[in-house]
Amino acid sequence: MGNKKTQSYSEQYRREAIARSAQPGQNARMVADELGIHVNQIYNWRSQFNKLAKGQFKTLDGVDFSQEAAEEIYRLKQEIKQLKEERDLLKKAAAYFANQSL
């Protein structure tokens, strides 16, 4: 199988494509042909756009999918992992010293 690289489009580009396809005398197929993309891409973007609050592609159902939020989530997960390891180590140390004092 060959590696097929997918094209990524900016949020502004997707918004403009959706807006153009909603104009009178235009439809998704016409806009897709003009932009050189598949018509289903515009339908997908329109569906995403309609699902998202206030037309923002970065949030869905109150969840922020922006890069900054993803980086913060990753950082917090790493911190939680480290804290759990430290907690487990302290539990073992406490059990060891409890047995030593008997």
Compact summary:
By secondary structure, the chain is mainly alpha-helical.
What features would you describe in this structure?
With 102 residues, the chain is mainly α. It folds into two domains: 9-58; 66-102. It has helices at residues 11-22, 28-35, 39-51, 67-100, and strands spanning 59-60, 63-64. The protein has a two-stranded antiparallel ribbon with strand order 1-2. A hairpin with a 2-residue loop joins strand 1 and strand 2.
Tell me the radius of gyration. Answer: 25 Å
Low-confidence stretches: none
| Beta-strand percentage range | under 5%
Number of helices: 4
Q: Can you list the strand order of the major beta sheet?
A: 1-2
Output mean pLDDT.
81
The major sheet is characterized as: 2 strands, antiparallel
Query: Could you tell me how far the N terminus lies from the C terminus, measured between alpha carbons in angstroms?
Result: 65 Å
